Amino acid sequence: EAQVTQNPRYLITVTGKKLTVTCSQNMNHEYMSWYRQDPGLGLRQIYYSMNVEVTDKGDVPEGYKVSRKEKRNFPLILESPSPNQTSLYFCATSIYQGSGYEQYFGPGTRLTVT
Amino acid sequence: SQKIEQNSEALNIQEGKTATLTCNYTNYSPAYLQWYRQDPGRGPVFLLLIRENEKEKRKERLKVTFDTTLKQSLFHITASQPADSATYLCALDPRSGGGADGLTFGKGTHLIIQP
Fold first, then answer.
1. Which residue in B41, B51, B100 is closest to A100 by CB distance?
2. Number of CB pairs < 8 Å for A and B?
3. What is the pLDDT of residues B72-108, one digit of tens each?
4. How far is CA A35 from CA A85, A86, B18, in A?
């Protein structure tokens, strides 16, 4: 079954404690992205990756890091989380389907930073 | 930068009627416009994509129109059902090549289909 998996699904942590949210896909898609979703602000892109070892900043990259060492994995790293990073995070992959790119989203990770 | 406007108020529609959602954008016209459905606590699910040179696209009970003159897309659900209740997101991709790096999402419209 084609899917995008994220772990953990829920996380409560404290300010400053480094954490990693993993994202894995089994669809062999080249493109992967991270988004955060906040009430009233909608979905905003954090980072994206066009392929292995190719990453770039999205609209709200401050406080986040990513890496793309393998095609299937795209972890999101918060080196020193702060309360303003409390949010719902989504990983997404996309592939060209002949008439454009469709994005496939993971189930989400709800992060609370106290 | 691209600004996208979707009706932030919930849209209440009676079952069986056609629901019409609006997506307006400013600045440049996107090469692609996409619609997603999102249920509470879940990731968005891709529904339809329409290109700038297409006026209309259909998929089962769904229809999307794209008017680059008005800078507007309309999303229609015909014969609506309570199971269609969800938040619907419009997303724009400004580049003809598409890809993961260019999508800008609207904040979504919450659709409620009343039985």
1. B51
2. 77
3. 999 999 999 999 999 999 998 766 544 545 688 999 9
4. 12, 13, 31
